[in-house]
Amino acid sequence: MMPAITPSTLEVGTGANSRPIAVERRAGAAPGLFWLNGFKSDMGGSKAIAVDAYGAAHGLAVTRFDYSGHGRSGGEFLQGTVSRWLEEALAVFALTEGPQIVLGSSLGGWLALLLNRALRRAGSGRVKELILVAPAVDATQDLMLAGFSRKELKSLEERGYVERASQYGPEPYVYTRGLIEDGRTHLMFDGVIETGCPVTILQGGKDPDVPQEHALKLVSHLLHDPVTLTLIPDGDHRLSRPEDIRRLEDAIGRAVAD
């Protein structure tokens, strides 16, 4: 019988910054699988569920959670920043044991790299491999701010936020001044990115949100660690079709076997 999912709530932050983070963990062997969602996504998404199913089928530990302002976690979405979500990722990661394969989609890809960097600076080498799906590294600067129109830049200055229609749901995406300004403190493309572990990148060739050029830019900054980039010519941003999920599963299998 496969271990059941254990849901829990983790309080992160203190005082007015405290927020309850919804976590789901499945017990299993090492290396564990640690999943990081994309912007406005949650741990009930198709890729997150596929990662959990893979872990269950192969007896691996799996950890998933929702950022504050997302899914079942507390906190206000409009207060969300890279710093807050990274703090939450580190707090949840501390619940895990042994080597972990860290997987991140879109914004979660950036957070995966930031998480790994923070752990390495603290002397932890528990990240066995990074698997990044359409990684939106430096997204606040290169993919959000750089793409704003004059009207949107004026809205950001005067109203403190920008609204954009989403092709993934009825509610618009909201990008706040706080998110953009905080993102500047976490930029990674200003130098070499050292991971200390292998990196696998899955990138769609028809991704309108994180173009393939962005993935190539990331590769150009990973100078000292093994990198595998799989470009899926007809793939979109989500990469959640059955064939895309199989590629993700194959990447996990290779990381576990290495």
From TrEMBL:
Enzyme Commission number(s): 3.1.1.93, 3.1.2.22
Listed Pfam families: Abhydrolase_6 (PF12697)
Catalytic activity: mycophenolic acid O-acyl-beta-D-glucuronide + H2O = mycophenolate + D-glucuronate + H(+); S-hexadecanoyl-L-cysteinyl-[protein] + H2O = L-cysteinyl-[protein] + hexadecanoate + H(+)
Annotated Gene3D superfamilies: alpha/beta hydrolase
TM region positions: none
Residues covered by the AB hydrolase-1 domain: 52-245
Keyword Transit peptide on entry: yes
Matching InterPro entries: AB_hydrolase_1 (IPR000073), AB_hydrolase_fold (IPR029058), ABHD10_acyl-thioesterase (IPR052382)
Entry keywords, A to Z: Hydrolase, Transit peptide
GO molecular function term, any single one: mycophenolic acid acyl-glucuronide esterase activity
Record's keyword annotation contains Chloroplast: no
Cited PANTHER family: MYCOPHENOLIC ACID ACYL-GLUCURONIDE ESTERASE, MITOCHONDRIAL, PALMITOYL-PROTEIN THIOESTERASE ABHD10, MITOCHONDRIAL
Function per UniProt: Acts as an acyl-protein thioesterase that hydrolyzes fatty acids from acylated residues in proteins. Regulates the mitochondrial S-depalmitoylation of the nucleophilic active site residue of peroxiredoxin-5/PRDX5, a key antioxidant protein, therefore modulating mitochondrial antioxidant ability. Also catalyzes the deglucuronidation of mycophenolic acid acyl-glucuronide, an active metabolite of the immunosuppressant drug mycophenolate.
Name of protein: Palmitoyl-protein thioesterase ABHD10, mitochondrial
Organism per entry: Paradevosia tibetensis
